[in-house]
Amino acid sequence: MLTVSHDSVVVELGLLVGRMACPDCGGRLRPWGWARPRVIREGLGTDWMVRALRPRRSRCASCQGTHVLLEVRLAARRADAAEVIAAAIEAKTVLGWGHRKIAAGCGRPASTVRGWLRAFAVSAASIGDRFTGLLVRDAPDAVVLWPKPAGFAGGEALSVLMAYAEGLARRFAAIVRVTWIQAGIATTNGRLFCSSLWAAGPNTNRPLRGALVGGKGGRSACHIPVIGVFT
After folding, report:
1. pLDDT at 165 over 70
2. Distance between CA 17 and CA 169 in Å, rounded?
3. Tally of structural domains, the chain
4. Is residue 221 in a domain?
5. Is the pLDDT score of 204 beyond 50?
6. What region, left, alpha or beta, does residue 106 occupy, with left being phi > 0 and alpha being psi -120 to 50 degrees?
7. pTM of the predicted model, to two decimals?
8. pLDDT tens profile 107-153
């Protein structure tokens, strides 16, 4: 699974011209049909709505491996948009709200929200450690962006994610704001909220190969600057 832009035209063009790289071998990804349809809940409160989508599937021309391309607004194995989950985590971490109050504000079942919060809490220490390393590596002004100690794992993880997002925005000269949820989803290929990912200790320190400003030039295994993840 790979995180890509929410703009299907940009994604399709990237596949057709061979500017997307396989995360396994670096080969060129090409169009390869579609994944199973998904239904995603978007929006907060009483304004939420359901959106049906069918993610693009790609295949590497070199290793023949296939990858589902999931847009940056979506989290793997979740039926709600990533920004909704992010809002719940912020309410818990920053405001100290309980899951029932958050659920009422989000317009989601309390059990669903409780699951989001637990998944983040369980993985918070690992998320904080991993993105601290990424912040040092990818942000040239990491010292300036370094977050103040939050005093608990969830706060530390959220602070580091926010600093990392700002570091990416500065590095790639993004013309729009990069949110922490976008940075987290893009870097983990949608698996930011998958506790199994962090329990396994995956390597998300893959170099940002071919990182380019303005979407010109070669291929990138990261897909952040060249195919418009943050646009």
Report:
1. yes
2. 26
3. 1
4. no
5. no
6. alpha
7. 0.81
8. 999 999 999 999 999 999 999 999 988 888 887 666 566 666 678 89
Q: What is the DSSP string of the chain?
A: -EEE-S-HHHHHHHHHTT-BB-TTT--BEEEEEE---EEEEESSGGG-EEEEE--EEEEETTT--EEEEEETTB-TT-SBBHHHHHHHHHIIIII---HHHHHHHHTS-HHHHHHHHHHHHHHHHHHHHHHHHHHHHH-TTHHHHPPPP-SSHHHHHHHHHHHHHHHHHHHTT-SSPPPHHHHHHHHTTT-TT-HHHHHT--------TT--STT-SS-BSS-TTTTTTT-
Nearest partner of 48 among 83, 18, 14, 13, judged by Cα? 83
Is 209 a domain residue?
no
Examine residue 207 and state whether it is found in any structural domain, yes or no: no
Residue in this structure with the two tokens 């109050």, named with its chain if needed: 101
- Residue range 172-189, pLDDT digits in tens: 765 667 899 999 999 999
Domain that holds residue 53: 2-199
DSSP annotation string for 137-161: HH-TTHHHHPPPP-SSHHHHHHHHH
pLDDT for the residue 42: 94
Cα separations in angstroms, 209 against 9, 68, 121, 157: 23, 20, 31, 25
In our burial notation (b when 16+ CB lie closer than 10 A, e otherwise), range 20-47 reads: bbbbeeebbbeebeebeeeebbbbeeee
The structure tokens listed for 104 are 């009422």
What is the biggest distance separating any 2 CA atoms in the chain, rounded to whole angstroms?
50
